[in-house]
Amino acid sequence: MSDWLPWLLFVLILGTFLAIDLFFVQRREGPLSIRAAAGWVAVWVSLGIGFGAFVLWSRGGEAAAAYLTGYLIEYSLSADNVFVFAMLFAYFGVPAEHQRRLLFWGVLGAIFFRAVFILGGILLIHVFEPAIFIFGAILIVTGIRMARAADEGMDPEGNAIIRLARRWLPMSNRYHGRAFITRQDGRWLATPMLAALVAIELSDIVFALDSVPAILAITTDPFIVLTSNGFAILGLRSLYFLLAGMLGRFVYLRYGLAAILILAGAKMLASPWYEFPTVLSLVIIALILAGSIVASLIATRRQPLAEATPPDPRQMREELDSD
Predict the structure, then answer these.
(1) CA torsion angle 241 242 247 253 (round to 10)
(2) 174 burial level (CB within 10 Å; 0-12, 13-18, 19+)
(3) Structural domain span for residue 205
(4) Which of 31, 115, 127, 320 is least surrounded by CB atoms within 10 angstroms?
(5) 3-state secondary structure of 134
(6) CB neighbourhood size of 264 (10 A)
(7) pLDDT in tens, the chain (323 residues)
């Protein structure tokens, strides 16, 4: 098979579904119901796994295992994005009818920044091999910090992303429909909509710094890394609407994600002396993720399930402001 054909297939799938999202799904206002979000999550996961089958057919079992491991790592870390997105939407009081639009542009930003960091990371490793030790240390430190953050919870006022957005964006005090900027008293001001978008894109950069070294701990094949990340990120928006109303139930998920990052970091640090089997990495990561989810659901089994839509961010903003 020609080397460019797998790339062409990936670009065609990516472009087709982004176009469907932009020109058809975007026309519907309001948040997705849990049922609709679950349907879209199933579509994205099916696409991701289906492409993994194509990798198996075209490149063999080792490449397919690396693809699925990278896909699972990125998809599991996307759950942490959901926590941050919910916090940002609450803090900026993003109306429910505008959340889809912001998440669409957030997904595009995530794809762009992942591609930049992935290509840069691969180049750095090939040019400066000791970079693997830097990446491994970053993953372990990030994992430890994530585990500690799971105990401390999230503080919007203490979040660096929010502080940066508020400092550099002169903002109006209310939304102006779907507009990102507005003219008020003779000067142009950002609306809270633009501030929320900037905060989301900055969070994409922060998450790229975490997730890219994690996948590079598995493989440095650009095709495997980019495609596994791309398909995982595509389902991020639907994942938000599926999980946003149930975040309180995943009390142990961040511990699982922290363990995955620490494992990836340890694997990268040990790589010059020991090559950890990719299939074994896939199995361990899947067990950690499944175990943290099951433990969370058991621990919160008496907590009622979320309603069909995520919580009203304006009400959440009022609660934050009253603290």
Answers:
(1) -130
(2) exposed
(3) 4-322
(4) 127
(5) helix
(6) 29
(7) 557 788 888 888 888 877 776 666 555 655 667 777 788 888 888 999 999 999 999 888 889 999 999 898 888 887 777 777 777 777 777 777 778 778 888 888 888 888 888 888 888 888 888 888 888 888 888 888 877 765 555 555 555 656 666 666 676 666 776 677 777 777 777 777 877 888 788 777 877 777 788 888 888 898 999 999 889 888 787 788 777 667 667 778 888 888 888 888 888 888 878 877 888 888 888 898 889 888 888 887 776 554 434 444 444 444 434 44
Strand runs labelled E in the chain: 181-184, 187-190
Structure tokens at 281: 């990495």
Cα within 13 Å of Cα(81), Cβ side: 34
Domains in the chain: how many in total?
Answer: 1
Residue of 198, 310, 194 lying closest to 248 (CA atoms): 310
Query: 235, 48 in Cβ contact below 8 A?
Result: yes
Tell which residue, 283, 280, 91, has the closest CA to residue 199. Answer: 91
Q: Are strands 181-184 and 187-190 parallel, antiparallel or unpaired?
A: antiparallel
